[in-house]
Design goal:
alpha/beta; 304 residues; single chain
Length: 304
Amino acid sequence: MYKKLVISLLMISVVGLGVSSIALANTVPIADLHFHPEAKMSPSRIMQVMDDNNVQWAGLGVKSGKFKLWQKYSAEMGNRFIPFAGQREFQVAFFKGGASAMVDPNNPILRKFIRQVENDLEAGKIKGIGEIFINKNSKKEQKHNRKVEADAPIFHDLYQLLAKHNAFLTFHMEGDSDSMRQMENLLKSDRGGRILWNHCGTNTSSSDLRKLLERNSNLFCELTKRYLVKGNQRNIFSESRVDSGWLELIEDFPDRFMIGTDAHNANDYRKYVKAVRSGLLANLSDETAEKVAYKNAQHLFGLE
């Protein structure tokens, strides 16, 4: 009789925790650290989509369109937008001159950008630079594929500049051993600098990332494109489950992870946010879920 009572109480406790976690996951505000401004979607429309999904902040660099599109978003979205510069400039340099052009400090596009970005950092207009494609290997977007050194002199100089202004460098980079070693060289060169690793490395394992996080307190991750990727082993979670190794890693380093969508229409945005809430946040402890959902981003980027 006593054993049955204990078991019943334990079950009630566990169920209660589950209900609490699900309720938090469904209502907690979100900071989307992988949203690219696009000319075809107005800032007012983006804010409506964000409101519909209880996303309070969103941002990253301009992927296509005008170099300074982020300025329009900043002006209209105010402190709900997280502005980054430089992605479009590095993309244009690559498409005009190949991989070597995007690491050439004498490239006229990049020289002009670096002069301007220092002014923007001084004025507090941007939170960082990126998403910069360091190592991309995609079957769907082969023309975008490239591999350059993550610690090339131009990135080292940008990293030092960003460290001076307490801003972030963000990399899209496969988890190849040489690329990870180069990124770690940057991280070690100045612990005042910080890197946000887009997609948590796209194909990185939880064990590989654990080693990097243990050695580098200035490395952070966002989990875009690590969920709902059909038939791909890089998935960390789905709508209903989360990989146990990654779950343990996030709980062990709760201050180092953030989330994002990389969505380009309202339907995908809704689907991705729903997956983040039910597949990831609902499976984390309440404290960690709040940090990953928005508190880490709020603290690191000074969001209001």
